[in-house]
Amino acid sequence: MVLKGLEEALEEYLKKEIFPQMAPGPYGPIEIKVLASEKPVYLFREETGGMEVVGKFFQWGKIDTNTATRRMEREYRNLMTVLKLGMDGGDFRVTKAYGRNPDLMAGLFTEKAMGKDLDHYLDRAITKGQQKRLHKKVKRLAQWMACLHGRSERKMGANYQLAREYLEKLLSSLSLGEALSRKLETSIRNHASRWWASSPPKDQEVLVHGDATPTNFFFFGDRVTAIDLERLKEADRCWDLGFAAAELKHYHLWKGGHKWQAEPFVEAFLKTYSQTLGTPGTFERTISKLPLYMALGLLRIARNPWLHQEYRETIIHEAKECLKYGL
User: Fold this and answer.
1) Residue 98: strand, helix, or coil
2) Is residue 60 a contact partner of residue 2, using CB atoms and an 8 Å limit?
3) Does domain 116-325 have CATH number 1.10.10.10?
4) Taking Cα atoms as reference points, which of 37, 32, 87 lies closest to residue 55?
5) How far apart are CA 239 and CA 244, in angstroms?
6) What is the pLDDT of residue 1?
């Protein structure tokens, strides 16, 4: 366990600083459960009252103390920013931040999101035929995004600069492996160039979650709770919408074997978002930009080394098709 040697200090901190925000003491033993395999995220459960707190630790592996502390503070500030937008209760929310401690592996402590994540419903739709449940969850996700975006519109107009920079980062990373050939990379750059030569439809920047993957959104009845706001930023609303649509396409292609199975869900997602936001022209503006951001989302997924090379080549090709033909 990464936390080995810190258990005593963690227990003291939780009982002194975190649990009192939830319920008065005295407090019993604390059970620790691993929540993620690729990074240190743990569930701390106080066994007497059943209180649960998630601890995400930023100092691990080769990450130095200053970098870890900076990342911890950034995510804490991001959570506080969204909570102040009124997303601290109701159906559309983010996890409440209880505190952070740079001396405990740069730990950030939050409430536990209730329910199942979108990954669960994607799997059930494909393996158990529960498409109706997935439709409902996808629509609720769209409403969560409309809530965040609608409450955070900026005066600055959206542009393609962040998308252009991110494409370069993705291509640089993918070029180190075997999934992206030089020919395909050139083709992607050529098709992307027409996007850079055009001006996006007039729209405002918003705060985006920045990491719209299925494991970052939890559903409990009608409630949607987002976690992992480390990448929250001001950007085009399609940063979230396109990446979520890319995840829907990827999952159906990867598990279901057919990319077109995702289309009804993507359509429902975009229409619900536009209807919820209620701003005239949102749907038209969104679909005109979405292929660019879907391409970025697919290329990001293609970086995952645990995917078979043949499949990674397939979704890189899908990204190229998005850039070339649009929706």
Assistant:
1) strand
2) yes
3) no
4) 32
5) 9
6) 60
Single out the residue of 48, 28, 41, 32 nearest to residue 230, CA to CA. Answer: 41
| Whole-number Å distance between alpha carbons of 221 and 230 | 26
Q: Tell me which residue of 218, 204, 234 sits closest to 82, measured CA to CA.
A: 234
Token pair for 300: 């990001």
Longest Cα separation, the chain: 65
Residue 191 in tokens: 């098709």
Name the residue among 149, 134, 157, 172 with its Cα closest to residue 242: 149
pLDDT mean for each 10 residues of the chain (327 residues): 82 97 95 91 96 96 95 98 96 97 97 97 95 97 98 92 97 92 96 94 95 98 97 97 97 85 96 96 95 98 94 96 87
The secondary structure element, H or E, covering residue 276 is helix 263-277
| CA-based nearest residue to 16, from 61, 59, 46 | 46
C-alpha 304: how far from its chain's center? 15
Which residues are paired to 143 by β-bridges? none
User: Which pLDDT does position 235 carry in this prediction?
Assistant: 97
Nearest-angstrom CA–CA distance, 106 and 3: 12
Q: Where are the domains of the chain?
A: 7-111, 116-325
CA 211 from chain centre, in angstroms, equals 3
Which residue(s) pair with 204 in the sheet?
A: 157
Residue type at position 108: L
DSSP 158-206: P-SHHHHHHHHHHHHHHTTSSSS-HHHHHHHHHHHHHHHTSPPPS-B-E
> What pTM value is reported for the model?
0.95
Distances, alpha carbon 145 to alpha carbons 45, 86, 140, 193, 207, in Å: 30, 13, 9, 29, 10
Closest CA to 216 of 225, 206, 204, 208: 225
Match domain 7-111 to its CATH number in 3.30.200.20, 3.40.605.10, 3.40.50.150, 3.40.190.10.
Answer: 3.30.200.20
Give the separation between CA 131 and CA 145, rounded to whole angstroms: 21
Q: Which residue has the tokens 């492996």?
A: 177
Q: CB within 8 A of 103, min separation 6: which ones?
A: 9
